[in-house]
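Q: Could you fold this chain for me?
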Amino acid sequence: MRILDRGFVDRRSPWRDAHAATIAETPEGLVAAWFAGSKEGNPDVAIWFARQEDGRWSEPVRLFEGRDGGGAPQPCWNPVLHRLRAGPLLLFYKVGPRPRRWWGMVASSEDGGAHWSRPRRLPDGIFGPVKNAPLELPSGALLCGSSSELFGWRCQIERTDDSGWSWRRVAVLNHPFTRLPGGFKANQATLVDHGGGRIRALCRTKQGFVAESWSEDGGEHWSAMRATDIPHPNAAFDARRLACGRFLLVHHPNARGRDRLVASLSEDGRLWRTVLELESEPGQEFSYPSLHQDGTGLVHLVYSWKRRRIAHLVLEPGG
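A: Sure. Below is the predicted structure, expressed as structure tokens.
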């Protein structure tokens, strides 16, 4: 694996704080979104969006702002882009004063992000994909790694069979009381397709490692959560199965700190080998990676660069 190109989605940065980028591919080209404003959690934090045109990113646009039912400004959080195989581009995001009190939103675009529908609020208790892209099943249903923080960190699996109009919560993967057997403070499940109906949920925790849960039946039933041997700080990561069959994980390699970001490969999704150091600078933050493999096999990675800009790397997976 090697880096083919390194740059930024945003050529100018009309904000102080940018974070939680997401990337997807449309027939019109790559698209990216993130939240930005004066500071994470402030009411001026909105969803920003850019499109890649002729190999260059467009000027970012302030796409959606947050409002509560009375019209008062609220911060936006954690956008997630996904283009359906047989449908529009979807954008999920959150609105609310803080994660334990936010709610889910979704909007759609039929023309690769040039124009968007009016955002609609998801049902109470449903948040949509909280950090990483949903897994689109052969049926066209979306399986989403979601989470709730209202009564402690809980990973939950949500499913929509009609492009985000109706929802059901399939499973809750953990309880957040770590003093009890099997307790994990976990959220932001990343769903990785292992083939044959086997799906692995890799989850962020506050305990210094990545946790996991497995489904053997396409996401309907899930095993009890358990710890993996992947060290990780309390931070986001992304993982997916590549077209070649190998697995890619972009993560922080230690149980503390966000100042190093690496790419690791695995043949089976269990044993990982670090192959690229993407960023390393003591005292800085490189975080919240989001992955997409395009139709040519190249891997696109976006992430928060020092919490000021959105970096974009193009990776060649290799043989």
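A (continued): The chain has no helices and 27 strands.
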